[in-house]
Amino acid sequence: MNHHLKFDPFTLLHVTVVGAGGTGSHLVVLLTELHKCIQALGGQGLMVTVFDPDEVSETNVLRQNYHRQDIGRNKAVTLVSRINLACGTGWLARPSIYTGSELVVRGQYSAATPHILFTCTDQNAARRQIGAAFGRSGKGYWIDTGNTRTTGQVLLSEPTSKEPHLPSPLKEYGELLADDDQDAPSCSALEALTRQDLMVNREVAVKAAGLLWRLLRNGAVNHRGLIVNVQDGITLPKPIEAGMVPAYAAPPVGLIPVEVPPPAPVPAPKRRASRRRATPPGAAA
Question: In this protein, which residues make up the domain named THIF-type NAD/FAD binding fold (predicted)?
């Protein structure tokens, strides 16, 4: 069962990334790879906006995509400035909290609602607020990411009330997202690396970027998320279930056309064997 992409992948795709920490800092860099490949295939690429109010700390340098020279600088500004300088992009950094109110202009939901919203935050209250606002807009995709010490999850959703649709994290993980308990920031290298595996955020970022890439490349995906376990080396897809997608009348449209296999060759008709008797040797013809 497949979900078909619901917008033109060749248009300029607006992407919002909420959180430039453990997962978000790696994800934003991976989005530069998608941007280049989309443009190489004839699309306009990505226009990314990154939100994060926090500054880079000494322990952030260990697991997040920053360096010692970045300590004390805002995460979003540091990351986006580096990318714009290296890639010639004009992506935007917002050193502030994203609440979803940015979707609203004069009381109405703006046409600038992003095509894709990534949440890379460990704050469940923020997820609930963002999901509610993004859901009321009725547009785009919400790709949520999260992780524990050695596991992580990626979930693709359509935050809309119209059926059928891919359910949002608010519905999929409602009980878990109701808990607002948070761990205190790590204050030492040992604590930081004990609380979370060095590679778990990177694995989650790779899975999130890969899921979006397959959706854009093929125009469809056959799963709506992934669960990863870096300790055991396990990756499990989340299947698309009955009732989550409509009955599509046309094939999906992605960046690379789906290859239609050539028709099977028609076998040549068998020649019928002649029933004429062979003439015995020495007999008259």
Answer: 14-160
**28: nearest Cα among 36, 20, 39:** 20
The reply to whether 264 falls in a domain is no
Q: Which amino acid is at 278?
A: A
Say how far apart CA 62 and CA 249 lie, in whole Å: 49
**Structural domain contains residue 246:** no
Model confidence pLDDT, tens digit, residues 209-221: 999 999 999 999 9
224 and 240 Cβ atoms separated by less than 8 Å: yes
How many angstroms separate the CA atoms of 74 and 25, rounded? 12
> Of the ranges 26-35, 40-49, 149-158, which one carries the lowest mean pLDDT score?
149-158
Query: How far is CA 21 from each of CA 106, 176, 238, rounded to the nearest angstrom?
Result: 32, 21, 25
pLDDT band at residue 92 using 50, 70 and 90 as cut-offs:
very high
CATH assignment of the domain containing 119? 3.40.50.720
**What predicted TM-score, i.e. pTM, was given to this entire model?**
0.84
Q: How far apart are CA 217 and CA 245, in angstroms?
A: 19
Write out the E strands in the chain: 3-4, 13-18, 46-51, 92-94, 104-105, 108-109, 116-119, 141-147, 151-157, 220-221, 223-229, 234-239
Domain for residue 136, yes or no?
A: yes
